[in-house]
Each structure stands twice: as C-alpha cells, then as structure tokens.
C-alpha cells in the first residue's frame, strides 16, 4: 500500500524554484531516504508535506486519499509527524510537557500532569525510546532531545514520520541508537522518510533513496542496486572526489601558540585544563575528540568569547593580553563556526551585508562611517561567483539560504579577510558532499598559502584526511599527539575515549 | 505587643496592600501577556484610561461598580487595539504600546476638561474606599498581621485573588501550558497544532483587563477622583515588579509589596522626620520608591530570564 504520494509538487520562492515538479510515491512500512545537495529542496518538500509551506502547485495523497495539507494540524490529523532539522522544543519545559503540548491529558480545564507523565513513560517503553519524563529539556543531551521529538509525534499517532537530517547533530553512538529506534518503528509498520547528507548512513538504513538536485527529482533507486559513488554522482551531477589530496606541509613559523590554557564552561565548571600547543604556518592541526570534551571551551577562548581562568595565547608571535574578539581578529585570526545560524551569519541580513561583516568599517566598504553600496555589491557579486554560492543573488536574506550556502558565505567572508590563522570548528557540519569537498579544497588551499589552520572536528575521517598533526582532546586535556601516518582511526578512537594516553613533549 | 504598635503594624500592612494593588494589577498584566510573548508597555496608558473612565462611570451611575465595569470595558477595547496591531499584524509591540500611552496622555487631559470642566482633578465620586463599600472582618481587627485584612477595599482583595487565579491558569491548566509554550517557542507550539494567535489574543486582552483594574484601583480605591497625573509611572513600576518577580504571579506579588512598602515607608519617614532628617528635601522621600525600583532591577536583572520569544512578533512561515 502507498502511504504517501506527491505529484508534481512545485514551490516557487521569490528568488528560487525550490521544488520543480517533484513526484514521489512511498510505500507503507519502508524507510525512504531523500538526499541532495544543500539547497536542493529537501526541507522545502518536507515542509510542504507537513503543512508549513503551501505549495505553488501539486497534489498530495495520503494512504490513497487526495488531501489538502494547509497547517501542521492537518498533517497531524492525517498521521504525519515531522522531526525538524532544528528541534522544535521548549527548553524550559519538562520532557512530558514538551511531548503532550497541544493534546494534553486534562480534567476539565486542569492540566493533568501526573497522567501526562504516566502516558509518556508508557509511550517511551513501548517504542524503546528511553527518556526521563520529568527532566527539563534544557538539561538533557541532544540525542535524548531527539527522542523527545520522536515521542512527540508518535503520541499523536503518526504513521508517517519525517526526519530532516536527524543525524547531523548526533554523536556516532547516538546515531546507532536512533537507527535501532527507526528499525523498530519500521517493524511496527510505520513509514519513515529520512533526510541525510551522509551517504554511508543512507546506505545503512534506507530501503529506497530519492535524489534531488536543484529542485528536481533525479531519480529513485533501490539501496541494493546502488552505491555511494553513484548516489554522489546523481546528487552533484559529476564525480565527487572526497579523497583529500595529500599536500606536503611547508611548515613555517608559529602563528598560534597556546600555553596552559584553562577555561570554564557555561556552567562554571573547568572544561579545558591547562592545554598547550602550537600551530605553525602552512600546517593543518586537527583536534580529534568526542563532543563535549573541551572543544567548545577551546573555541570560545580562542575567539575571545570567554576569558580563560589562566593561560596565554600568542598570535603571530605577539601575546594577546586582552582577549576580545576584536583584538584577536585584528591580529590575524579568522573563524569558521560550528553553529552557522548563531555565530556565522545574521539571519535577517542580506548576503551583501553578511559578506562584509567585520570589514564593514574598512575601506572600500565604508568611508567616514558611510557604507559604499556599489563597492559592497561589487565585492559580494564577485564572492558569490568565486565560492559558488546559490542563488547568485546578493539580496537574499541569510536565513533563506540553505545550510551549505550559508557555510560557503561564511567561508567567503572569512577567507577574504587578511589572516595568518584560521580556526575551523566543525566546518562541514550538515553539509552535502559537494560542499564538503569544497570546504576541504579551501582548507588545503589555505595551508598552501602558508596559513596556519586549526581544525576541530568530530569526524575522524576528516581529521585523518586533512591534518598534518593530530591532537586528541579528552576530558579537557590533550591526551595524545600524533600524525595521520603514525596512527589509525582505531587508536584515535581509544584515545578519544580516554582509554589510551600518550606522553607529549612540547618543543 | 501594646495596642499602639499593633495598630501601627496592621495599618502599615493594610496601607502597603492598598498601594500595592495598582502596581500588582499592572505587573499581572505583564505576567500574563509576556508569558504569551507579547510585551505591553501600553499598560501605563491603559491604566490612565481606565482610571478616568472608572471615575466617569462611577459619577454617572453614582456607584463605583459601574465605574469598575467601564474600566474593564476600556481594558478590553485597548487590549483589542494592542492585539490587532501586535498579534493580527505582527506589528512592533513597543510602538503600539507607546501609541497607547501617548493617546492616553492627550485624551485623558482633554476628557477631564470636557467631562468634568476641571483641569487638575475630577470632583469626588462614589468609590470603593468609602466606609460602606469596604469589606469588613471585624473579628480580625485585634490580631497582629491578620488585622490588616479586617478593613480592605474590594479592589485590594481582587488584586490578591487575581494573583492566585493567574498562577492557577499559568501553571495548572491546559491553557496556561499553551500560553507559556507560545511565549517560549511559538513555532513549536504551532507545529503541535496549538493556535498561537488565539492564545496571544487571549493573553493580551486578559492582561489589558488586569491593567485596567489597576487604573480603577488608582482612582476608585483609596482615592475617589481622577487626577491628571495618573498613573504616575505605576504601570512602569508594575513592569519592573514583573521582571523582579521573574514573570511569575507570586513573584510579581512580592515585588509589588516591596515597592509599595517603599512608598509607605517614604510617607512614614516624612511624617516622623525630626532634627537633621527634616533638612532632607521632600523630593528625596518622594523618589525613594523609584530608586528602590531601579536598585531592585540592577540587583536582579542578570538573573531574571524572560520567556524566550518575549516581544518577538509571530508570523506564520510562507
Ligand atoms: N522561506 C524561504 N524563503 C525563500 N527561499 C527559501 C526559503 N526556504 C528555503 N528557500 C530556498 O529554497 C531552496 C531549497 O532550500 P531547502 O531548505 O529546501 O534546501 P535543503 O535541500 O533542505 O538544503 P540543506 O541540505 O542545506 O538543508 C534554497 O535555495 C533556499 O535558499
Ligand atoms: Mg534542509
């Protein structure tokens, strides 16, 4: 039986044709993956199915019946549920409150919290999605938050579950757990639509895979009859080489020197403990580690967001006494953040504004405090071309760009600022392979130009492929230093879990 | 405890409750409306309108209850206005609030002249503070603290009941859960099928009615007339009380009591000042409550957290 069918769906945004006559038909009880480059129109299509966007034209059939889905309420009624790319949770509410919101157990007007907790507990057991119903959502890890999202839609009786890049924010272990849950849901007869950029994951979990490119459906393939290389080619329209060409590092002088850096995290606990290391010009230093082992604290100290408890940071041979973002950036540091939307761009600003941020006070973009529009536009147009940012329109708002294009925008901005040191913190999070390849290429180019790069990543393959030197961060300390040719992913994995340590001698 | 200190204690508490009522109503307006994500700085203006129309209604009907009804009606009308701009059209909440305040300033002064033919204040009208309208519990009179509750006005009791009511709504009803959800993350609420606009409308109008009650408490509580200076920043102090009280009804109650006590204290200090204290200018005493407000805000503001989507207009995505 067909669970969901869409026919000739078109969605025209003011600047882009996000969906161009897409027709899909999804069987009940299958895991159906949708892949495609950043901006291909995956999220748009899902939002249409969930009633968040109104399609320009096209038809939707649910369990054989033609339907109109104008609001999420309609979708819920039709037993469609969606786990969004950005979680739709209320951090200050408890797990229970988040799950029952909108359909609360009640006695008259009164919200029956006790019964709600009981219901959530039963639900969580029934689907094997473990949560503590009375925890505040703000205090639980991302993986569990996602379970809350899933329970939320299951409670509404969802038969068709849409997951928009559910694994982008998960650790490998959490991803494993999610896949177990998905298989269990499938066994219960639920239909699952799964969006991801990680083709390896898609090949693991999906039954069939649809490929979108620039708003058009490229084709639907069965998992058994395809492979990652073919999928990548369909997505991008050409062969993708994710193999990172090895470029011998031409190591120069020290551009970043960190000594005995100790930093507190948001909760006031020491998250980084006396860390020392150097980055030289012309090399990429990779920081490997499981999320939450001091990466955030390191980044925040390096960009001047949190003042370290103690320690010293030198940029280009000069100690930065007062660690503020301004001081660091004017002394030659640029930064690619892990959280694009919060740190990378100003969502309501246009591309042309976002792309000069940080240089907006400088000639030629402004003179005597007055912005020079034509110079800005010229610059923005040039960068859009150079970094292949789509759509090629400098007036689009940052928030309306797809994730990959937002990242390219940041790259374009940061790399065109004069700098000696680049801090790249999870620069490929949520990016499609085409964009990933692009980021890798840019990082290697930086290295060739003699820039010192510090790469923080949770992806071991990325660390192994790009780094000239690898530092392993565990529990706020550097527990090992090695090079890609002297180690392997297994050994790194052991160090990342704190099961193996290496003595380091700092030269 | 001798009878003199007992009397002083009870009357100080009673007076504090009296002064607190308008501030508290204003604070509760903020609590309910901002918990649904709508800032309403127009409450100062709503109080002014309601204070005037309350007096007008009471004057015509020769009955404070009619004044109360007129005040509430004004609250609903102004709530509809604020809601129309900020909820229906997702307009700027501050601008809409300022518009209400400016309007209240001009129209209030004009109406005072047009209706009562006076400039400074209206003639006295029947009010809730009059002996016959007060609520008496004679048996409480000689008990310390409780004695303060032996002779209060209806509006003071109403302000206290409203605290409990709003607390109950916010934290124990389905509606309250949805109000808070809308103030924290309207998108999330929407995707769960909560009607965000309906909730916001409800909160804005209920809040405006509360602010209107505050206005009536000013002009028909212990006073029996409208003065042109009303509400003298009581609405804004109410907003401060809301922040100080961390957007909760009981927090707002405590904060309102503190601010009101500062006012009572100021009167007490003024009347008992002797020697050197007499040389302190009157202005100092008068400004004491306001300084306290600022001080309280500085002390607490770092810790207070507004609802996450407070003040952000909500529009449905295209
Ligand atoms: N609300 C909007 N207004 C205007 N344009 C939009 C809007 N939402 C998306 N777009 C545009 O539509 C296109 C498709 O975006 P969509 O978010 O569907 O991509 P995606 O495939 O989900 O990408 P990603 O993998 O980066 O999440 C993009 O070019 C994007 O800029
Ligand atoms: Mg997307």
Q: N-to-C terminal Cα separation of chain B, in Å? A: 69 Å
Major beta-sheet overview of chain A: 6 strands, mixed
Query: With helices defined by DSSP (H or I, 4 residues minimum), what is the helix count of chain A?
Result: 17
Instruction: State the assembly state of the protein chains.
Output: heterodimer
CATH class term of the largest domain in chain A: Alpha Beta
In the CATH hierarchy, the architecture of chain B is Orthogonal Bundle
Q: How many discrete domains of chain A? A: 3
Helical residue percent band of chain A: 25-40%
Named once each, the bound ligands are: adenosine-5'-triphosphate, magnesium ion
| Lateral arrangement of strands in the main beta sheet of chain A | 6-9-10-3-11-12
Low-confidence stretches of chain B: none
Number of strands of chain B: 2
Descriptive account of the structure:
The complex is a heterodimer of chains A (507) and B (318). With 507 residues, chain A is of the alpha/beta class. Helix content of chain A is 32%, strand content 26%. Chain A has 3 domains: 2-236, P-loop containing nucleotide triphosphate hydrolases (Rossmann fold, 3-Layer(aba) Sandwich), CATH 3.40.50.300; 253-332 and 418-507, Rossmann fold (3-Layer(aba) Sandwich); 344-417, no CATH class. In chain A, strands 6-9-10-3-11-12 form a 6-stranded mixed beta sheet, with helices on both faces. Chain A has a 6-stranded mixed beta sheet with strand order 18-21-22-15-23-24, sandwiched between helices. Chain A has a 4-stranded antiparallel beta sheet with strand order 2-1-4-5, with helices on one face. In chain A, strand 4 and strand 5 form a beta hairpin. The N and C termini of chain A lie far apart (67 Å). The model of chain A has no long low-confidence stretch (mean pLDDT 90). By secondary structure, chain B is mainly alpha-helical. Chain B has one domain: ABC transporter involved in vitamin B12 uptake, BtuC, CATH 1.10.3470. In chain B, 69% of the residues lie in helices and 1% in strands. Chain B has helices at residues 3-35, 43-61, 64-88, 93-116, 154-172, 174-184, 186-191, 196-222, 234-244, 249-272, 282-300; strands spanning 135-136, 151-152. Chain B has a two-stranded antiparallel sheet.
């Amino acid at each position: 039986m067909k669970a969901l069918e869409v026919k000739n769906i078109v969605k025209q945004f003011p600047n882009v044709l996000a969906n161009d006559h897409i027709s899909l038909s999804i069987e009940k009880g299958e895991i159906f993956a949708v892949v495609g480059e950043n901006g291909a129109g995956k999220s748009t299509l899902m939002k249409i199915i969930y009633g968040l966007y109104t399609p320009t034209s096209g038809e939707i059939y649910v369990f054989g019946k033609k339907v109109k889905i104008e609001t999420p309420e309609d979708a819920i009624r039709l037993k469609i549920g969606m786990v969004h790319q950005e979680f739709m949770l209320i951090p200050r509410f408890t797990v229970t409150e988040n799950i029952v919101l909108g359909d609360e157990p009640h006695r008259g007007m009164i919200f029956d919290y006790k019964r709600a907790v009981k219901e959530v507990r039963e639900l969580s057991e029934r689907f094997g999605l473990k949560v503590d119903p009375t925890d505040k959502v703000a205090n639980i890890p991302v993986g569990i938050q996602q379970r809350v999202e899933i329970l939320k839609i299951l409670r509404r009786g969802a038969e068709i579950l849409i997951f928009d890049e559910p694994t982008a924010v998960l650790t490998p272990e959490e991803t494993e757990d999610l896949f177990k849950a998905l298989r269990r849901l499938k066994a219960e007869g639920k239909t699952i639509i799964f969006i991801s950029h990680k083709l390896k994951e898609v090949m693991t979990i999906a039954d069939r895979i649809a490929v979108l490119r620039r708003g058009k459906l490229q084709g639907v393939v069965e998992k058994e009859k395809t492979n990652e290389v073919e999928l990548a080619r369909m997505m991008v329209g050409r062969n993708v080489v994710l193999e990172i060409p090895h470029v011998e590092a031409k190591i120069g002088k020290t551009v970043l020197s960190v000594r005995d850096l100790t930093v507190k995290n948001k909760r006031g606990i020491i998250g980084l403990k006396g860390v020392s290391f150097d980055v030289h010009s012309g090399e990429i230093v990779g920081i490997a580690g499981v999320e939450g082992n001091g990466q955030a604290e390191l980044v925040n100290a390096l960009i001047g967001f949190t003042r370290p408890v103690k320690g010293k940071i030198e940029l280009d041979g000069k100690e930065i006494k007062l660690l503020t973002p301004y001081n660091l950036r004017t002394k030659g540091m640029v930064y690619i953040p892990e959280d694009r939307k919060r740190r990378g761009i100003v969502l309501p600003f246009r591309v042309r504004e976002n792309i000069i941020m940080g240089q907006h006070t400088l000639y030629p973009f402004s003179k005597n405090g007055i912005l020079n529009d034509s110079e800005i536009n010229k610059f923005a147009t040039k960068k859009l071309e150079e970094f292949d940012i789509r759509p090629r329109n400098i007036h689009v708002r940052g928030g309306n760009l797809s994730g990959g294009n937002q990242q390219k925008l940041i790259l374009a901005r940061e790399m065109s600022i004069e700098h000696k040191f680049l801090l790249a913190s999870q620069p490929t999070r949520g990016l499609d392979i085409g964009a990933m390849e692009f980021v890798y290429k840019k990082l290697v180019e930086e290295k060739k130009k003699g820039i010192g790069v510090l790469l923080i990543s949770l992806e071991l393959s990325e660390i192994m492929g790009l780094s000239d030197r690898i530092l392993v961060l565990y529990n706020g300390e550097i527990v090992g230093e090695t090079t890609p040719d002297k180690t392997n992913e297994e050994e790194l994995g052991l160090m990342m879990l704190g099961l193996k340590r290496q003595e380091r001698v700092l030269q | 405890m001798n009878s003199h200190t007992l009397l002083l204690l009870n009357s100080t508490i009673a007076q504090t409750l009296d002064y607190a009522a308008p501030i508290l109503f204003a604070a509760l307006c903020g609590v309910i409306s901002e918990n649904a994500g709508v800032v309403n700085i127009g409450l100062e203006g709503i109080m002014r309108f309601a204070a005037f129309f309350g007096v007008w209604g009471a004057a015509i009907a020769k009955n404070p209850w009619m004044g109360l009804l007129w005040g509430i009606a004004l609250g609903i009308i102004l709530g509809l206005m604020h809601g129309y701009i900020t909820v229906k059209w997702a307009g700027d909440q501050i601008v809409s609030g300022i518009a209400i305040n400016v309007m209240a300033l001009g129209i209030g002064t004009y109406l005072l002249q047009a209706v009562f033919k006076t400039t400074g204040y209206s003639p006295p009208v029947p009010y809730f503070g009059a002996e016959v309208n007060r609520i008496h519990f004679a048996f409480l009179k000689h008990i310390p603290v409780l004695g303060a509750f032996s002779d209060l006005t209806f509006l003071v009791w109403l302000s206290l009941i409203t605290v409990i009511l709003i607390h109950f709504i916010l934290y124990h009803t389905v509606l309250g859960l949805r109000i808070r959800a809308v103030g924290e993350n309207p998108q999330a609420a929407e995707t769960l099928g909560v009607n965000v606009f309906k909730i916001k409308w409800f909160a804005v109008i209920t809040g405006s009615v509360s602010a209107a009650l505050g206005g009536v408490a000013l002009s028909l509580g212990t006073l029996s007339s409208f003065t042109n200076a009303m509400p003298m920043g009581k609405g804004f102090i109410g907003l401060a009380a809301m922040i100080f009280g961390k957007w909760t009804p009981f927090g707002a109650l405590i904060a309102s009591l503190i601010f009101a006590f500062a006012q009572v204290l100021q009167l007490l200090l003024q009347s008992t000042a002797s020697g050197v204290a007499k040389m302190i200018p009157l202005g100092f005493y008068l400004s004491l409550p306001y300084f306290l407000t600022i001080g309280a805000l500085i002390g607490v503001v770092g810790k207070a957290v507004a609802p996450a989507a407070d003040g952000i207009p909500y529009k449905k995505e295209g």
